[in-house]
Every structure is written in C-alpha cells, then in structure tokens.
Amino acid sequence: MLAGFRAALAKDVRLLVRDxxxxxxxxxxxxxxxxxxxxxxxxxxxxxxGASPIVLPLVDADGGRxxxxxxxxxxxxxxxxxxxxxxADAARRRVREKAAAAALVVPAGTTDAIAAGRPAxxxxxxxxxxxxxLARVRLLVEELRHAVQAGLRDAAAGxxxxxxxxxxxxxADLDRTLDRLRADVARLAAAxxxxxxxxxxxxxxxSARVDAARKRLAARLVPLRTFLADLEARRTTFDAWLAxxxxxxxxFADRVPPPPAPPVVPPEVAxxxxxxxxxxxxxxxxxxxxxxxxxxxxxxxxxxxxxxELPASPDVRLPGALAAEETSVSGAPRTPNPFDQNxxxxxxxxxxxxxxxxxxxxxxxxxxxxTLDRLRAxxxxxGAVLGAKLVARAAVGLAQMALLFAVxxxxxxxxxxxxxxxxxxxxxxxxxxxxxFGLVVAGATASREAVLPVGSIVILTMAAAxxxxxxxxxxxxxxxxxxxAFPTTWAMDAYNDLMIRREPPQAVLRATAALAAFxxxxxxxxxxxxxxxxxRG
Amino acid sequence: xxxxLVDGLTKRWGAxxxxxxxxxxxxxxxxxxxxGPNGAGKSTTLGVLATQLPFDRxxxxxxxxxxxxxxxxxxxxxxxxxxxxxxxxxxxxEENLRFFGRAAxxxxxxxxxxxxxxxxxxxxxxxxxxxxxxxxxxxxxxxNLACGILHAPAIVLLDEPVVGVDPQSRERIFAAVQELARxxxxxxxxxxxxxxxxxxxxxxxxxxxxxxxxxxxxAALVAATGLVPHVRLxxxxxxxxxxxxxxxxxxxxxxxxxxxxVALADASAVPAVxxxxxxxxxxxxxxxxxxxxLADAFLALTGHxxxxxxxx
Lengths: 537, 312
Known about the structure:
The complex is a heterodimer of chains A (537) and B (312). Chain A has helices at 2-18, 20-40, 65-75, 88-96, 110-115, 131-249, 267-274, 277-284, 287-295, 338-369, 371-376, 382-412, 424-444, 448-465, 477-482, 487-500, 509-536, and strands spanning 54-60, 80-84, 102-106, 120-126, 322-328. Chain A has 537 residues and is mainly alpha-helical. Chain A has a 5-stranded mixed β-sheet with strand order 2-1-3-4-5, with helices on both faces. In chain A, helix 3 links the parallel strand 1 (54-60) and strand 2 (80-84). In chain A, helix 6 crosses helix 8 (277-284) and helix 6 (131-249) packs across helix 9. The longest helix of chain A is centred in the middle third of the chain and has 119 residues, at 131-249. Chain A starts with a helix and ends with a helix. By secondary structure, chain B is α/β, with parallel strands linked by helices. Chain B is built from 10 helices and 14 strands. Chain B has helices at 42-49, 71-75, 93-103, 108-121, 137-149, 167-182, 194-200, 218-225, 270-279, 294-302, and strands at residues 4-13, 16-26, 31-35, 57-62, 65-67, 78-81, 155-159, 186-191, 203-208, 211-216, 230-235, 250-256, 259-264, 284-290. Chain B has a 6-stranded mixed β-sheet with strand order 6-7-8-3-9-10, with helices on both faces. In chain B, a hairpin with a 2-residue loop joins strand 4 (57-62) and strand 5. The radius of gyration of chain B is 24 Å and the shape is elongated. The relative contact order of chain B is 0.14. The A-B interface holds A 369-371, 373-381, 535, 537 and B 47, 50-54, 72, 75-76, 78, 80, 82, 84-89, 100, 103-105, 147-148, 157.
C-alpha cells in the first residue's frame, strides 16, 4: 500500500510540475493581485508606505495672519502638497478638472474678522468622489482650524497677560499714591479740626468782645437818644404853642412873626440814634476785619494730587470662531451613497468576467469543437464569425449591466445622475472594450486552461487598479496615472462623473471616446492575434 | 481544367516540410482518395484545398478558382467535412444543419428545407431536436457529413469521415459520398483505411512524408509494385521437394514443418496448387489465398506500413 501511495504521490507531483498553467495560476496570479492590491491601497497606510502626498490647491485671499499660518502649516505637512493658486475660481477649476480632491480658500478678511471676535469661514471645494482624500483633507482642515484658533487664542492670552501685568503695576502705583493722598488728607483733616477749634475759640472771644462793645455803645447812645426825644417833644410843644398863639391872634395871626427855626438834627445823628446797637456794631465792626484779626489759623497746604498714569484699556479680544465650509464643485451631495461606487465597480468586474472570459472561452470552444475551422471553409468570412460572437456577447453584457444598475437603483437607491440615459455611454464603452479584449485573450492563449489564469489576472488587475473595488483616490498618484492604460479606469471615472458628481452627459464624452479607442485597439490586436493563431492551427 | 488541380504544392510548418511538391487532380464526379499514414500530409492538403491554410509553393485550383487569390470564391463551391465532429454540442441536429446551411450561403428558407432533407436522408429526423451531445457517435458522424454538404458543393473534401462509427452509419456515409460523386461532385476522400479507399475511390494518391509516392487506380497501384497473390497451405505431413512441379505460374516461396507459402502469377492457379498438394501426400488442413492490396503496395513503396496494426 505504501509503495502504491508513493507512486501515486510521485505521479501527482509530476503532473503538478508539468502543469505550467496551473503553476501560473497558483503563483503568478496571486502575486500580481497582491502587488496590485498592495500598491493600490498604499495610501491607506500613510505617506511612509509609499503613498503620494495629497495635492491641495490653496488660495490665500486673506493675506493676513490666518492665511500665513495655514500656508506655513501646510508646508510642514508631509502628507500634503499645497499648490498656491490665484483665486477661488482657479481653485474650483483645479478640483473640477480632477487635478485635486479638494481646494482650500482662505477668504479675504478672515484674519480681521477673527481678530475682531467675529466668526470666519474657510472654504473647501470638494470632489465628492474622492472620499478618501477628502477625509484626509477634512481632517487636515480641522487640524488647521484648531491650530489657527489655538494660535490666535495664545496670542490673545499673551496680550491679555501683558495688559494684566500693566494693570497690576498701575494698580500698585495707584495704591501707593492713594496711601500718600490718604495721609495728606488725614493731616489736612487734623489741621482743619485744629483750625476749627482755634477759630471757634477766637469767634467766641470776638463775640464776647462785640457784645461788650455793643453794650458799651448802647450805653453811650442813651443820652443822645434821650436828648433827641426831648428835642422832639419840645418841638411838638412849640408847634402847639405857636398854633395857639396864632389862634389867639385871630385876624392878626399873620402878623405874628415867624418863630425862630429850631436847630436841625443832622440826619447822621438821627440815624445813629435810631439805629440799634447790632447794626451800629456791624457797621463799626465789620466781621471780616474783626474776625480775621481774631481767628486767623494756618492750615496745611492742600495735598498735591499725584499724576497717576493708568494704563490704557487693553485692545484685546477673544478670537472669533473659524469654521470650514465645504462646497462640492459640481453641486453634488457632499457624502455620496456608497453603492454609487460599488454598483458600477462590481458590475464592471462581473461584466469583464462575463464578456472577457465569455468571448475568449467561446472562441476557444469553437476552436476545440472544430466549428471555427469548418466555418473558415465556408463563404462566411472569419470577421463575420468573430463579429457575431462579439456582438452577441456584448448584447449579453449590456443586458447584464442594465440589470445590475436596475437592481442597484431599486435595492440600494443608487444615483443615476442628472441624465440616466447617459449611463449608456460608459456602459457601451466598457462592454465594447471588455468584449474586444476577450478576443485578445483568445488570440494570446492556446487553450481553455490558459484562459483562466490569464483572464483572471487581467480582470483582477484591471478592476483593482481601475478603481472598481475601492475609490481610485486610495491609489498613489503614479498608479492612478498607470491605471489610465485600463478601460476600467475610464469607465469608473465616467460612472463617478454621472452618478456621484452629477455631471452632465458632456462630461463623460472624453471617457467614452477613450473606451471606444480601447475597444478599437483591442479589436485590432485581437483580430491580429486570433487570425495568426487560427492560421497556425 | 479538372475540378481540383494541385500542382507542386509545398507547405512548411517552420523548418518542417509538411508537403513537398504534392500534385494530383480530381475530376467532376470522381472520388479520389488521399491515402497515407498519420502525418503523411493528408489533413494539410485538405486544409489547403479548404482555403484554411496558406501554402508556400505550387499551384492549387478549385473549380477554376486559383488559390489563394480566389479563396473567397472557392469557398462558395467547397464543402468540408472535417475529421473532428465539428458541431455545436448544445444545439440540436436541426439547428446545426440550419446554421451551417446559412453559413454556406443558403437563405433561411433554403437552409430549413435542406436541413429537413438531410435529416431524413441521414436517418436523423427522429432525433432532430435533441442536442447533439445526446446522439451516438455514428449519428454525429452522419450529421457532421450532412452539415458539410448541405449546400450541394461542387467540391467535397472529406477528412476521415467514418472514424469510430458503427457499420450502419458507415454504410450511410459511404452511400452519401457515392451519391455526391454521382451527382457530379469532385470528392477528395482522406483516409488511412485502405479498405475505405479501395471501396470508394476511383483513384488513390498515396502520400507519405508529405510526398506523393504513387497515384492511380487501386489495381494499378498494386500492379505497379509487382506484388503477386500467394496461397498459404497447412498440411498434416510435410510436402516433399518437387511437389509443385508441373503447376504453371506457381513457385514455392517457403516450405517448413507442414506450412508452405506459394507465390502465384495469377489467382486462377489456386485450384492447381491445392491439387498438387493433395497429390504430394501432405493431407491439406487449411489454406489461405492472400491477394496483394493497397497496404501491401504502400509497404512495398515506402518500406513501412500504412497503419501500425498492419505490421502485426
């Protein structure tokens, strides 16, 4: 039994080693797929893993501190290559032309607005298809925003600290001045109290002297007043006597000679006699003169007010909030439905499996069955036979794509873009290219066994590198450029334009033309290879 | 001008010369056999005639169409029946017939009529709608032939059309080939089966190593080799010397232990030889008359057998 087992084992090893196609499928195919997938996903692991930095057009319309800070931080960021552009329109154009996933605009007046405590906004133009790069840009913009705000806050805090220090010093100076002032005022108050006491004593003394003087005056005026009163009384009596005299003189009264005039009391004397003592005293002893001479007190000079220099109010405000505003350059939703990427991507993958393997295996079947040789001996040209085969497969491919998009629409609500009919353009293109490539594979391979590894490698490579399985912006830039050699890349670009970017049909004409060119190229190469193989037998 | 003219045809596969100055003709109504072992150049010759293969030198004319210049026109009059059963396995017999009829230039209606006629002619009408993968090998061979002659071609190229078939199918195929010739078609019949060639072909081209070794009617080919009939005898007792004396046109080739091989000038001498053996006291147990055939002629001409089992 052991001998039989050894013989069988040796036989199987020999069969395996001699199965070149199988060995290719076991080794080369996975190596190719691993390489393509690894290179495609390099960006996931950051720039150190071989990824290329993100291109970020930058518009500094601000020209101030914020704009400079953002430019400096971007310059120091290895994952980003900032490209200064002239204005927002140029930035938008760069994104629209797919030269960048996003562009950053620092609007004019941003620094002033923030410095004035008003909110300001950074503007980010985005291409919603390039989700991975966008996520990195969003993260970066957030970091920039926080960094700028933190910088501005730090600056404001520094200015506030300086102002606080100046205020503290001024306050200490003011305190010292006030202390001195308080001392002066205290001294003044004491002097004033002393002066008041002294003045009150002087006043009392003066008042006493005045009272005494008034009393003396009053006493001295009594004889005058008595004389004047007596004089008045005598004048009255005289008048009465005269009147009686005249009366008795009767008709001769006019002959009575006028009496001699009594002496006239001078008015000053009369006023003096009529005035009271207080008035007279006030007239004779005016207060200011009398009191000044009586209550003069030396008060200390008023305290000199120091020249206090208070610091000016600090011109510091807390910085305004800095926000970021995203704008999709095509007006598409900012966040696409993931199925908008996956439905066309995997539809293309399975389309290729269907048409590429279908065409190549069907042609090999024709060769193996002998029907192709038989047909070559008929009046039907080989071109017609091949053309019919390709058209039939292409029709199946179109139906397959239509079905997958219909399911995608119904089950996953995928976007069909502004003009759903335009999806026919890339669909027809990739179907034609895939079908024609099936002819290339059929011409390049000698057997059905060879089609599987060759076809698998081709399909997996085209699908992976062309962005069918993940957004193509995951791939390094060089790989994206290399992937332009695959029709899948152009087809996915067209689908992304229509379904995610919501571009008009004109936007996919270039990609459709490229797909048509691929189809023609593959068809020509396929015909050449296939004819040669057929003629070789 | 013969229906098929091949003159000095040379075809190389890289450094290997597959055909080296092959020349023959086929007239209308004639069946010409290409006879030779595997690798002799039969299929390559048919490939050239069917316009499938380019050739390096020589002249090939098919129904007055010069190849390769008039290959397109030649294809209109050629019907190829390849050695392989070249049919679509998932299509039915009728669908295959209709398709190859259309490919040969028939209108849809004409193809339908021709398909129905062929199905009846080759005994396939009852299985007409079944995928041919379900048909027997013999049925598929018949269908394979039918698909090649559906458009009544003037030139019919048959590449070993009865390989692996049952006797019933072979007879139908033979009958159809003969009918084609009777209808005026020029038939080129490639085979390595001497019996088929002898039975069907008016003339035979013996190919070996890409060269024509001989051509002519089967009898002429054998005659040309100088081979004569033999009679082989087994007797109970050994025949003595001179036992054949007096028999004209006969001579002993080998004699040993009751077995004797006698060469004859003509097969008509067999009774005289048998009588002589009886007279010689050998007591005849069995005898076998061996006539020279194409295989013997081929062996004589090339030094090796037509088929490996011919050597046994």
